[in-house]
Amino acid sequence: MTHSTAGRPADPTTPSTAERLDRDDPLASYRDRFVGAASPLVYFDGNSLGRPLQGTAERLARFVTEEWGGRLIRGWDERWMELPAAIGDEIGRVCLGAGPGQTVIGDSTTVLLYKAMRAALAARPGRAEIVVDRDNFPTDRFLAEGLAQECGATLRWLDVDTSTGVSAEQLAAAVGPGTALVVLSHVAYRSAWLADMPELTRIAHEAGALVLWDLSHSVGSVPMQLDNWEVDLAVGCTYKYLNGGPGAPAFIYVAAHHQGVLVQPIQGWIGAADPFRMGPEYAPAQGIRRFLSGTPPILGMLAMQDMLALIDEAGMDAVRRKSVALTEYAVQLAAELLAPAGVVLASPLDPDRRGGHVTLNHPGMREATAALWRRDVIPDYRDPEGLRIGLSPLSTSFAEVRRGLEAVAEVLAAPAR
């Protein structure tokens, strides 16, 4: 809650409140490092595609002229072969609370989720049940459905409110001796529900199951401690809060004690023990590299290095504090500006249970989203009736949040055409 100098709550809708919040924000100067941040456009979709950093253009140009153009194929021996694991270790250190050798950059999020699900299911012989919630991201649900058909497994669906997420009580009632795998999202893509990762992992382990966490809507926004929380497997994308660019490759985390046991199902040359031997039979590499399949997408993993360095400089705890402050401010503004028009908060009110975005429900939100885009205010829409306000902590200002939600109020108040 914001406060005036007189000790009474300040009006969150006034420009002076937003200006003061920006003035007092210790991370405010980081915004200047992003392309387009100085423009009047309001960007509420950093949880779908992060803004590029200004230094990224220089990095990409330098790579083309110096490494790709200058070193040519020698680049593989000199640096490129090690990049997937090197950048993976940085993601682990900066964002995941993961020691080295457990995170690697690989394929798309979908492909890595498939690998992890298939490997986990095979590692629990005699168990044939996958637990997944109906409000998980579509890819996670679709993969679980396809894997159940492929392997003769059974799906146990958890029904959750679209404004919350999976609770400890729900999961405890669902898992049992037949559960092989639990598939969960750390932050729900629709509501921003922040799952209790250590507790849900513990519950699944007590039932003898493995857990796969989708970190796509939390990595770079919410601190975590995968090693300390005894997480088995995790996958996340890098183009949201890690600002890796459109279609940047995803990462996979595999706890060290599982790496010699899990068998990844897509056996490709780069994951072999000796990739350049081109031998007649496949033998997996030692360690995390065995979860790679094809040629690493080197260009696609360059941009995220700049954002990782920026998050490391700011510190994940400070990033989370800024994220909470932004979403709290958005919730306050919505209560003042939008609730009178019938807008309902569809995200947790408790910031400890909320990730880095806020969803606001109203029957007119689909049409409002299109109108807002025409005004250079860029949120996104998610059924049912949800306007999703994604607030990337290092590139978003409080003044931007105020301008954007004022525009939402104006669009909802405009007569229908």
Automatic annotation (TrEMBL):
Pathway: Cofactor biosynthesis; NAD(+) biosynthesis; quinolinate from L-kynurenine: step 2/3; Amino-acid degradation; L-kynurenine degradation; L-alanine and anthranilate from L-kynurenine: step 1/1. Belongs to the DegT/DnrJ/EryC1 family. One of its GO terms (cellular component) is cytoplasm. One of its GO terms (biological process) is L-tryptophan catabolic process to kynurenine. This is Kynureninase. Its cofactor is pyridoxal 5'-phosphate. Residues 1-23 are annotated as: Disordered. Homodimer. Its EC number is 3.7.1.3. It comes from Nocardioides panaciterrulae. Keywords: Hydrolase, Pyridine nucleotide biosynthesis, Pyridoxal phosphate. InterPro entries: DegT/StrS_aminotransferase, Kynureninase, PyrdxlP-dep_Trfase, PyrdxlP-dep_Trfase_major, PyrdxlP-dep_Trfase_small. Catalyzes the cleavage of L-kynurenine (L-Kyn) and L-3-hydroxykynurenine (L-3OHKyn) into anthranilic acid (AA) and 3-hydroxyanthranilic acid (3-OHAA), respectively. Gene3D superfamilies: Aspartate Aminotransferase, domain 1, Type I PLP-dependent aspartate aminotransferase-like (Major domain). It is an enzyme of class 3 (hydrolase). It catalyses: 3-hydroxy-L-kynurenine + H2O = 3-hydroxyanthranilate + L-alanine + H(+); L-kynurenine + H2O = anthranilate + L-alanine + H(+). GO terms for molecular function: kynureninase activity; pyridoxal phosphate binding.
